[in-house]
Amino acid sequence: MLKLKNVSFAYAEEPILKNISFKLDKGELLSVIGESGCGKSTLLKLIYGLLHTDGNIYWDEKELLGPNFNLVPGEDFIKYLAQDFDLMLPLSVADNIGKYLSNQFPQQKKNRIKELLEVVEMTDLADKKAKLLSGGQQQRVALARALAKKPELLLLDEPFSHIDHFRKNNLRRKVFAYLKEQNIACIVATHDSTDALSFADKTIVLKNAKIYATGHPEDLYKNPPNKYVASLFGDVNELSLQDLKPEEKSRKKVILYPQEIRLSNRKGIKVEVKESWFNGANWLISTMLKNKTIYFYHDASLIAGKMVNLKVSDELIASRLK
Ligand SMILES: Nc1ncnc2c1ncn2[C@@H]1O[C@H](COP(=O)(O)OP(=O)(O)OP(=O)(O)O)[C@@H](O)[C@H]1O
């Protein structure tokens, strides 16, 4: 088990992380989300042992002491995939993946490289030099290299950020399934809500140097404590109860995702259509309610200036009242 106790860090005066504490079981997958600059990468570097903290980090009974105590920073059983992939550019894809594998058993090494090439869908490019690869291909090689010596804990910083949409979904399913199958614990720092929602067992939200919210991704999504957390999962509306039900005098806030608001043929919240954006599955429509923008999804674009009625289920409003 990984255990962090009061982990704090500052590059200069300003604290980047303050008293971060959490636990992660073997084989568990944690996503760390939060706005850019909130300290996600710094947290991974602290755990890997590239930065020093006065707090405590343990793997089972062993305390991970960090760079002030280790001549070579980094822990053997942890692999860290940074945002800059750190590949050996003159070497081939296969040689990069095998870089940390022992040469003592050449056939085993060959088999392992072959297995990992399949996981990251790079078999056809095994002999190509890393310097000739695209950014997304280099990221896949770096991912395979991080997995090569089966870590007990894998730290991934935006692991699919350079990979095209077409390949990303399939690759992501494969990689996370592989981690589960091999019981490898993993922390993913990510901006991508699919990483955070679909694959993580739990999620930590960072803000103002602290753990701002934590929980099962589905709970955080369905019951976002506030607009900041909800907005990490996509577009979001923050309305008052009075906006939704004019007969109510309460100004309590209600967080709603665009897909939770529908067009109504009968009465509802009267809004003026401003813009429509096609996003593939449907259209995102922006509307104005007095001086507030409300976003919702619809299966067609709407003419700007048109007055329409919107509705939201009463149960949903009740469950989101803050
Ligand atoms: N080497 C450094 N020296 C000084 N400040 C740094 C250094 N690295 C990062 N920072 C600052 O620390 C803060 C946290 O950075 P970090 O990279 O951990 O954020 P992040 O959440 O991973 O951001 P992003 O989502 O954009 O990757 C930022 O304000 C950043 O400018």
CATH topology name of the largest domain, in short, is Rossmann fold
Strand content: 25-35%
CATH class division of the largest domain: Alpha Beta
Number of strands: 17
Ligand list: adenosine-5'-triphosphate
Number of domains: 2
Low-confidence stretches: none
Spatial extent as radius of gyration: 23 Å
Give the topology string: H per helix, E per strand. EEEHEEEHHHEHEHEEHHEHEEEEEEH
Q: Shape from CA axes? A: globular
| Second CATH tier, the architecture of the largest domain | 3-Layer(aba) Sandwich
Strands of the largest sheet, in order across it?
A: 6-7-8-3-9-10
The helix/strand class is: alpha+beta
How much helical structure, as a percent, in the residues? 25-40%
Description:
This protein folds into two domains: 2-226, P-loop containing nucleotide triphosphate hydrolases (Rossmann fold), CATH 3.40.50; 235-320, Nucleic acid-binding proteins (OB fold (Dihydrolipoamide Acetyltransferase, E2P)), CATH 2.40.50.140. It has helices spanning 40-48, 93-97, 106-119, 135-148, 165-181, 193-199, 217-222, 227-231, 241-244, 314-320; strands at residues 2-10, 15-24, 29-33, 56-59, 62-63, 78-81, 153-157, 185-189, 202-207, 210-215, 237-240, 253-256, 262-264, 269-278, 283-289, 292-298, 307-311. The protein has ten helices and 17 strands. It is 27% helix and 30% strand. The strands form four sheets. Strands 6-7-8-3-9-10 form a six-stranded mixed sheet, sandwiched between helices. Strand 4 (56-59) and strand 5 (62-63) form a beta hairpin. With 322 residues, it is of the alpha+beta class. Bound molecules: adenosine-5'-triphosphate. Adenosine-5'-triphosphate is lined by residues 11, 16, 34, 36-42, 189. Adenosine-5'-triphosphate (ATP) is lined by residues 11, 16, 34, 36-42, 189.
